[in-house]
């Protein structure tokens, strides 16, 4: 407790009051919360400003890149469309030549397919294989007989 004394021109007069009167604990907690809340609010505001500045800087850097990407994409789309048109034109122009060149081969393949009976061919190959085997066996026996006169 502190006692303040005021000097009045007519004389001295003592003025007593309590400068540091104790606060109730709830009021102390309330003051501490308010102080913390103000500090948090100021820090949040500062962080918000920093985020806004960062966002602005990032946008300023990204905008030119986005424009370049857009131009590249548009150019690629136009180029793809032009190439598709050119390929289609070339395909149409070459179609008669391709048909002219491939037609004899297709006709020949079709003729061979129609004229060959694969079952008959298979039977013929098996028959000729058997005849060749028999002929080789006969030739081997004759050769053995010539080389070995005792048999």
From TrEMBL:
It comes from the Eukaryota. This is Apolipoprotein A-I. It comes from Cyprinus carpio carpio.
């Amino acid at each position: 407790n502190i006692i303040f004394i005021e000097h009045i021109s007519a004389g001295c007069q003592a003025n007593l009051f309590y400068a540091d009167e104790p606060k109730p604990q709830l009021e102390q907690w309330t003051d501490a919360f308010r102080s913390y809340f103000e500090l948090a609010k100021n820090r949040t505001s500062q962080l918000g400003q920093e985020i806004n500045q960062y966002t602005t800087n990032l946008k300023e850097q990204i905008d030119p890149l986005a424009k370049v990407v857009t131009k590249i994409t548009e150019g690629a789309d136009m180029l793809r469309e032009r190439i598709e048109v050119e390929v289609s034109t070339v395909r149409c122009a070459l179609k008669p030549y391709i048909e002219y060149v491939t037609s004899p081969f297709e006709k020949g393949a079709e003729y061979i397919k129609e004229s060959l009976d694969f079952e008959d061919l298979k039977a013929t190959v098996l028959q000729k294989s058997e005849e060749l085997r028999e002929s080789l066996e006969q030739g081997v026996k004759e050769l053995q007989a010539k080389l070995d006169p005792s048999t």
